[in-house]
């Protein structure tokens, strides 16, 4: 999830109107102690970044549109432009084409190019649609968190950079998993199947500010039609005073509103 490419070939912005918000996992506020810089750039000098085959904005290599040897299905190479503005320009992020997604999954070992096992070729287009839908929903959640600042600055935030961190459990995900073992009726007790860190460029009177968000992706139960559902826990990382304050207000406001309404 969360694969974007930084180049852009079209100025046509796809319409994502009426997309419902992604369901958010509930749970207690836990300490987000991972306060290092964005992992995309952490520990790398300028020379290392310039020599790296990975795009520093998304920590991903540039994947070709070339069909794989033995590939039986002709996958589309057209890419959809998202509704998510880039922090580095006035353009919008693009999603990968089905062919790029297929190549990426082979590189990650999710597909055997000789047999096509695990993920069928004809399922890739549907996966791209789900991927795009999820990312649009995540951006809507971020816009909701950013709303108080946007109302003051009158400037919409932008997505500056991001990276996948599937092997790095967030403290909150670890906490919910532990509490789920102790109190299964209150906590979901599942581990996320993926995690991303998105760095948002926020405008304020002092200028631009980088704000890191943590996104934990969970698989949900199938819906009434047997289709899979997903839950995404989106919140600002606890690496600044503002982020701590925003999370405290967000999670305590419903409790305080209910308490005072009964008086």
Molecular structure report:
With 263 residues, this protein is an alpha+beta fold. It has one domain. 30% of the residues lie in helices and 20% in strands. It has 5 helices and 8 strands, in the order αββββααβαβββα. It has a 4-stranded antiparallel beta sheet with strand order 5-6-7-8. Strands 1-2 form a two-stranded antiparallel sheet. Strands 3-4 form a two-stranded antiparallel sheet. Helix 2 (98-107) crosses helix 3. It starts with 45 loop residues before the first helix and ends with a helix.
Q: What's the mean pLDDT score?
A: 78
Count of discrete domains: 1
Give the SSE string: HEEEEHHEHEEEH
The total of beta strands comes to: 8
Q: β content, as a range?
A: 15-25%
Low-confidence stretches are 2-22, 24-52
Largest beta sheet: strand ordering:
5-6-7-8
Oligomer: single chain
* Structural class designation: alpha+beta
Number of H- or I-type helical stretches? 5
Helix coverage percent of residues?
25-40%
Q: Work out the radius of gyration.
A: 20 Å
What is the 3D form? globular
Question: CA-to-CA gap between the ends?
Answer: 45 Å
- Biggest sheet overview: 4 strands, antiparallel
